[in-house]
């Protein structure tokens, strides 16, 4: 049998009350067991206690909901009424628990105290009125109404006692106030006696406070113990620490005994009056240097009550010391208080008076906060009630989507079922509730749009589109060869703006779509669903920075934090705070929610509306949703080893039975987004002359033959001119506008110029998003740095041929001193290996401008390669350059070799040709500016006429122009290649061309060797 | 002339004092002008005021330093002594400012008050002693020592006054305490009279407090105004708000007048005693509903002083109202205080008594905080003094580096001078102070190492290495063709671990170096210098996440936040908090410092030592350093348009003159890092059998011919086996270990397996860092996702041929249903276009294992391409596969065509060959498993013998194997290519091979067409 020190207090004439009450305690049997085992004989409550228990405990959920319904049908009850309902319910239940004891003790024990509103502490009339209401509402004989012992409180107390209402007078700190309390009780009993009323049925206790007194006095004592203070004074102050409250209480108790022995009381006692016992309150120790049972141990006195917080009760029960003080202590106590005043100038009266006011405030603050908190909880209940009304069809629809996902993946035999199930509720909330969209209008931009960045969850997207009536392809054709429901979404399906499936790219595309919307005055929201594992991709943070810096408040990233990546746990499991913290650090607003709870999902989505009071303004929003991978199917939930796997027939049947999806699908109402006037920004504001000059092809170009012009500069010049012709042209830079020369466009069309900073993946993604929204993006950086974005470019190529111009500047070793890290030597290989791309490589200012024009006119992805250094203008200004063409610059009937060159090597090839001609070797020179598609016809003719081709390119020797020519022409002639091999390095451009055998002299030497 | 309402107070017999004092005020002439223009005639100070001014103001820097030196030679003076020094200095200077007024007014005006330590408020003896000390230390006649009006304080005051020390009695709230003060003054004067001392030379004032009383009383009044309180009570409470303090003060003033008229006083006055004037203190309005001059306006009474905080003084000067109260007000005041007590139970005595204790505490807290703060500042000064000792040679060295940078860039005619200057101090601190390194040991790993992620700042690195004697190459050869001092660093210079210059990659390499150190028990730190613009690269955040998740506490990222990117401002200018917040959100410790202040740089670097008390433990550290681009050259500092530009001769001369670098360079002491025992982790803990079985080449392989095995699985198997042979093998995964099958290695060698999650750029960078530290990394992901890391791979290729094996799985359309996003179709093109790479592509289990072995043995970068689906084993288990070889699988004298295939297409080619043979068409079949280098000899023979080659590959048709063969063999035979063109999509593998003309049937058809 466990040791119960508390139960022993009874043997010493003291009762143990608990200074705590909550619904949990009532429900979990704690109170009952304390009564049974620890001799608990009473309970006190106060607003601060209720504030702690009621503010957030789910134990009150049902009661708040019920109170809302019963107090006012429309749920509009004031918070105070709900508080009183909850408090009186708790107190009444506690009274009932203690009623047997109350009755068995002839009304001596088994009380529960309930306090009036702390706001009424100084209003006798209002106190009396509320005490009466609470008394009636609880309706139990073992109730104490708790009233503070202020002068007005005591006025009310006297009247209440006369009326027969039982009162616990509280907030007694000073002995003067206690004296008033005693007198008040005596007067009330005398009045009842005079009125001929029964005295035995009335009860009262006086709650005398302890630890707060020491806290206040000790603070002043410590003031006396600072640096440089005399040692004697410090010692005196130190010796009194932690002793005032007990001494003060001992003197109060002495006064209680004194009154009890008075004739005046004896007369009342004979008439049946019960003594007004002292209750020791504020018994929890605050000072860590004192024992945690300090205030209990010292005051185990007959006919008193000790009311303890739970921790103190448990501590005493475990190791409390029972030691009844000798009466001499009372003299010691008096001496101690004298020392305080005399030696240390501590005014205990002033302190205790102030403690009353502080005590009232200590209830007012939590009471007001509790009402505030209750009002919020009530609001949430009203919201939840409304949301439940909306959620219940959504719950059914989510089941239908889950069932559909399982059916289609099982039918396909593969596909990401579990990654689809985790976001089923999020997708349902988006497509069937929050998004304003029109299932009949896949191409329309005046609707909220969705992009599945975690592309492997395609099944849930197909399911949602099918169920909403947006597509008619049978979901069971998932992943089949002729279906547009691919394993990862591609724009072969009309609802897919860009291909996804290589993780971390969606948010950048959404950024581009948002920019396009902003240019066109469309106020749609753009939702992007990401996985949690996916957020390890740096491109996500490039996109996050961009969205925040550009103020794209309409962008919403939803992270499906299912805690499991492909091959193990996701980095931060279900701790959504990590990603939320990162989004916040990148300038986003971040919300963390339960991704399976519509009551959490719907408000979070609502908060992304521009019209919502919590709308993000210019800040994008990230919603980090805790979800369960495989949610909805018991044996898949959170289970490892199911990534990307489908269920077999038996498992499917079991899962579908468990889901029990409703028969009927939820109809959704098509909606569109209001479309504002397009911003001025979209209208070219170039000079009128420019517009006249350059509005029609062919572009007017003006260079002198032989003039030195860098092709990168000519590209920038052309862009600027064409800004007036193409109102949909948007230029995206990666902090190199002064190198690529897009700055020329930026100066004229700042509204259509986007600074994407040093973040090439996002830069390409933004361009793709712009293209997906009908813009004509041009993106430019060093050719070398495009390798950084190769995956983004690859996915763009899988996005059904978006119209975009990508310019890579600083191609080849001819950049010179900056060295290999800045040299584009792999760019032609990259673009050649992608489907649907065009590769153009101008050699002079005229061709650079013309090819820029051709690239922008072309309906597809075009790569334009430019050179850092200046080269002489070769062509007349009116020369035309077609995609798929070439220029034969030197030609004769005697040609024995054709030099095929592009860009910078056109110039060195011309130099070599001239040198060779001097030696009697005639070579043809072809400017193969269209590397893809190649001008096969011209090359074939050259092959036939000269027999041998030498391809010279400032690019890695493999996979570039040389390979392209060899692959196409190799069957007709011998094809030799000169390109960069060996490690490149820093040096003067001419030295490097020489070193890599691309100079005129080296070409000459190679040609002679071949010819030999 | 400006309006000065303050000056008018004099006309009404009131003096204006300022309740504020600071060094700034003294120095900037504010006090002097207030004396001149506003009639300021006194100043009060207190510990809270000094706490505000002294805690952080740089105005005290010099004085703290001086106090430290003069108080104790070793700088060990206690903070209190320094405080007293600073305070008495300020007060003395203020006294001197007011001395003329003091003298002109016959000692009536021009006082400054200095308070005793608030800790002495209840110690008469100590108060008296300290007051005497302060009095002597200031040594001015117009000083008031301020003493609180506690009983003990007044005891001291009486004695002080008798001694002739002038006293301002403060913290007077209650009229009872004021009465004591009056009596105390009377007694002191009477004593002096008795002692025959002069009375006229003594002065005293009584500071009576105002607004704090209202704050306390109004708080209680508001308690009476809560919900449900009776309307009458609320109205009464409301009517008294904000009125108590003034009423209380009026009554105190009435008492002052009363005493002044008493006989007792008249006797003293006749003997020369001066009245003890009342000072209104705490006059700043706290309640926003009251006028900001409330406490001034109401108490403009003759012979009083109003001491005001600056804001109140300025407010009154602007719009104060001068309205002298009629005497009847005093009666009103008494009534008001009665109402408080009677109607509202507010105990003003209790409140005022408590306010004294609170007031003392309100000085103790800031006083103690100030001493704490001063102790910290003193510590910083001691640190700084120590650092200055260290810094002064560093300052000179930094100048030398700056001069060197300018000389070399000007000589080169290009290079990033300004980006080098911004980090010159950081680099100097690292290389000449903090890093333990040995200039004679470029290859050694047992030293702290440095990586310049912002590679364009190469000049500063070369300068530092040269100055430290680590390199001997003349810095003036910067960027020259034959120098290893390249424009951006490459490992051609022995101090460079990996090439940098493509931004955002350094941190990942450092991560890999740190992992290698951890495996080998080397406790070096790894410093990585980044630019601020660079931090827009997502790869930085991939690396940041990795470092934190792996607990790489030895990694230190230093961000040179110079606020300027290449083409405009960096994203967050000099606001270092943004990047610091991001690093913190990614799990790092982040420090923000001034990157040009050695006193800030050195402690920040010191805090990264494992032995430092603030050491980061397992958390990496980011130091975000605010710097100025171009720092050190006046016309370059923060100027736009200088990125990457060099100075001309004249500018250089001007800059060098400004820098004035010292002649002599700073010698640095070579140091090494202690090297611990290697962790067990590095020792293969495979089974003994494995070690015996697989320790020697050739690798034992065991498959049956015809057995179905996926090459990716065979790769994983081989890795696991080879783990025992290569103790330096470390495998890095991107969350696809169950797909690439590196999980087989992970299970056996978890310590050498690194989960780099879905972040391919960092994954490659980590592998490069491992290679740079002598490990043999193998990294694997889907071939498609290697495109994500192309720039990282490219930079690795520029890093002088690191030894690493890169495996790309899921190659080609044959992956099937997952669709194009997951298909590697560009990987061969990528690796072919890089210098020094090897490309291997096994077709069955045997070749996959053998090529894995060959790849790991090879000293360079090897790409291994594997296939998702299972393929039949073609080769006997003991078949050998050399890099540069091929296998001729079908061959006859009748061959009219050679099918060149690799990987999956070897199988479809064999199928086609068999079909063709049935039709009498003999074809040779070559497995070209070594795509780079190609087995040219075998292909040439086939070309010669069969005349036509048909290359078949599951890769994009361009830039892959077909191109390679065409380029090499095209001159000898006709080369046709079959590869993937057109948009790939989801579907069954067989369907997709068929669709893209790679199936046996399609090859057969193409072969027949060619043959025809």
Automatic annotation (TrEMBL), chains A, B:
Pfam families attached to this UniProt entry: TAL_FSA, Transket_pyr, Transketolase_C, Transketolase_N
Enzyme class: transferase
InterPro entries: Aldolase_TIM (IPR013785), TAL/FSA (IPR001585), THDP-binding (IPR029061), Transaldolase_2 (IPR004732), Transaldolase_AS (IPR018225), Transketo_C/PFOR_II (IPR009014), Transketolase-like (IPR051424), Transketolase-like_Pyr-bd (IPR005475)
Coiled coil (UniProt feature): none
Cofactor(s), by name: Ca(2+); Mg(2+); thiamine diphosphate; Mn(2+)
Keywords: Calcium, Cytoplasm, Magnesium, Metal-binding, Pentose shunt, Schiff base, Thiamine pyrophosphate, Transferase
CDD domains (alphabetical): TPP_PYR_DXS_TK_like (cd07033), TPP_TK (cd02012), Transaldolase_like (cd00955)
Known EC number: 2.2.1.2
Domain Transketolase-like pyrimidine-binding, residue spans: 709-873
Similarity section: Belongs to the transaldolase family. Type 2 subfamily.
PANTHER family hit by this protein: FI06132P-RELATED, TRANSKETOLASE
Complex and partners: Homodimer.
NCBIfam families attached to this UniProt entry: PRK03343.1 (NF002881), PRK05899.2-5 (NF004559), tal_mycobact (TIGR00876)
Protein name (database record): Transaldolase
Organism encoding this protein: Thiorhodovibrio winogradskyi
């Amino acid at each position: 049998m466990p040791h119960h020190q508390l139960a022993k207090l009874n043997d010493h004439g003291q009762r143990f009350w608990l200074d705590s009450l909550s619904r949990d305690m009532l429900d979990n049997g704690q109170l009952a067991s304390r009564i049974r085992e620890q001799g608990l004989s009473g309970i006190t409550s106060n607003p601060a206690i209720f504030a702690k228990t009621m503010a957030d405990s789910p134990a009150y959920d049902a009661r708040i909901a019920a109170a809302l319904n019963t107090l006012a049908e429309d749920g509009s009850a004031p918070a105070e009424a709900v508080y009183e309902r909850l408090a009186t319910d708790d107190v009444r239940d506690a009274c009932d628990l203690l009623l047997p004891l109350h009755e068995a003790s002839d009304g001596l024990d088994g009380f529960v105290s309930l306090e009036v509103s702390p706001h009424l502490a100084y209003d006798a009339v209002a106190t009396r009125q509320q005490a009466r209401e609470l008394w009636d509402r609880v309706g139990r004989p073992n109730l104490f109404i708790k009233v503070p012992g202020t002068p007005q409180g005591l006025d009310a107390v006297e009247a209440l006692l006369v009326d027969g209402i039982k009162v616990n007078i509280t907030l007694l700190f000073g002995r003067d106030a206690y004296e008033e309390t005693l007198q008040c009780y005596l007067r009330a009993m005398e009045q009842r006696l005079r009125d001929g009323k029964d005295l035995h049925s009335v009860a009262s206790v006086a709650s005398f406070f302890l630890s707060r007194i020491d806290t206040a006095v000790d603070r002043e004592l410590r003031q006396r113990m600072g640096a440089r203070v005399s040692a004697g004074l410090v010692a005196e102050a130190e010796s009194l620490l932690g002793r005032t409250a007990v001494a003060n209480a001992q003197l109060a108790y002495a006064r209680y005994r004194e009154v009890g022995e008075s004739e005046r009381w004896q007369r009342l006692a004979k008439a049946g009056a019960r003594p007004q016992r002292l209750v020791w309150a504020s018994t929890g120790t605050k000072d860590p240097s004192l024992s945690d049972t300090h205030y209990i141990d010292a005051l185990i006195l007959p006919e008193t009550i000790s009311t303890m917080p739970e921790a103190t009760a448990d501590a005493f029960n475990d190791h409390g010391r029972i030691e009844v003080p000798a009466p001499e202590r009372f003299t010691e106590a008096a001496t101690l208080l004298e020392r305080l005043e005399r030696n240390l100038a501590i005014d205990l009266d002033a302190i205790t008076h102030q403690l009353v006011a502080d005590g009232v405030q200590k209830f007012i603050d939590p009471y007001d906060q509790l009402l505030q908190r209750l009002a919020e909880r009530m609001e949430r209940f009203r919201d939840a009630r409304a949301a439940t009304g909306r959620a219940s069809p959504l719950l059914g629809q989510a089941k239908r989507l889950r069932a559909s996902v399982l059916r289609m993946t099982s039918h396909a035999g593969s596909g990401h079922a579990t990654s689809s199930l985790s976001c089923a509720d999020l997708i349902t909330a988006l497509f069937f509730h929050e998004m304003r969209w029109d299932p009949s209008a896949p191409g329309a931009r005046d609707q909220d749009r969705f992009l599945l960045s975690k592309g492997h969850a395609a099944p849930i997207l197909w399911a949602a589109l099918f169920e909403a009536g947006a597509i008619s392809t049978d979901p069971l054709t998932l992943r089949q060869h002729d279906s547009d429901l691919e394993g990862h979404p591609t724009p072969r399906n009309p609802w897919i703006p860009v291909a996804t499936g290589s993780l971390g790219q969606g948010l950048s595309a959404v950024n581009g779509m948002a920019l396009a919307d902003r240019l066109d005055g469309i106020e749609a929201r753009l939702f992007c669903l990401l996985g949690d594992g996916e957020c390890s991709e740096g491109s996500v943070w490039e996109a996050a920075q961009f969205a925040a810096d550009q103020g794209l408040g309409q962008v919403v990233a939803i992270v499906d934090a299912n805690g499991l990546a492909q091959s193990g746990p996701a980095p931060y499991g279900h701790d959504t705070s990590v990603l939320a913290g990162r989004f916040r650090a990148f300038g986003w607003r971040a919300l963390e929610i339960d991704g399976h709870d519509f009551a959490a999902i719907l408000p979070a989505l609502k908060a992304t509306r521009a019209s919502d009071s919590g709308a993000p303004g210019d800040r994008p929003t990230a919603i980090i949703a805790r979800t369960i991978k495989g949610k909805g199917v018991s044996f898949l939930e959170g289970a490892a080893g199911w990534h990307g796997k489908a269920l077999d027939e038996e498992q499917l049947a079991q899962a579908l039975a468990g889901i029990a999806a409703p028969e009927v699908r939820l109809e959704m109402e098509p909606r569109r987004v209001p479309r504002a006037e397009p911003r001025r920004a979209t209208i070219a504001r170039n000079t009128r002359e420019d517009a006249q000059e350059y509005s029609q092809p062919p572009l007017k170009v003006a260079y002198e033959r032989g003039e030195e012009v860098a092709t990168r500069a000519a590209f920038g010049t052309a862009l600027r001119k064409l800004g007036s012709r193409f109102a949909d042209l948007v230029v995206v830079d990666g902090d190199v506008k002064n190198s690529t020369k897009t700055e020329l466009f930026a100066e004229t069309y700042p509204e259509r110029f986007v600074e994407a900073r040093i973040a090439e993946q996002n830069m390409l993604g933004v361009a793709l998003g712009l293209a997906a929204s009908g813009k004509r993006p041009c993106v430019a950086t060093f050719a070398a740095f495009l390798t950084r974005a190769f995956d983004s470019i690859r996915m763009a190529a899988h996005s059904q041929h978006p119209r975009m111009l990508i310019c890579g500047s600083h191609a080849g070793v001819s950049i010179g001193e900056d060295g290999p890290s800045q040299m584009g030597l792999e760019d032609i290989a990259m673009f050649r290996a992608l489907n649907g791309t065009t590769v153009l490589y101008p050699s002079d200012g005229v061709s650079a401008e013309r090819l820029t024009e051709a690239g922008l006119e072309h309906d597809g992805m075009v790569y334009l390669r430019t050179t850092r250094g200046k080269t002489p203008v070769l062509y007349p200004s009116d020369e035309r350059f077609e995609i798929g063409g070439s220029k034969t610059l030197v030609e004769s009937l005697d040609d024995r070799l054709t030099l095929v060159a592009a860009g910078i090597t056109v110039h060195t090839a011309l130099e070599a040709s001239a040198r060779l001609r001097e030696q009697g070797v005639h070579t043809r020179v072809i400017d193969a500016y269209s590397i893809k598609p190649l001008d096969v016809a011209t090359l074939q003719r050259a092959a036939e006429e000269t027999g041998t081709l030498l391809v010279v390119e400032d690019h890695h020797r493999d996979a570039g122009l040389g390979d392209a020519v060899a692959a196409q022409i190799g069957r007709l002639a011998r094809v030799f290649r000169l390109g960069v091999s060996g490690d490149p390095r820093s040096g003067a451009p001419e030295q490097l061309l020489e070193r890599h055998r691309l100079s005129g002299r080296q070409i000459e030497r190679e040609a002679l060797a071949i010819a030999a």
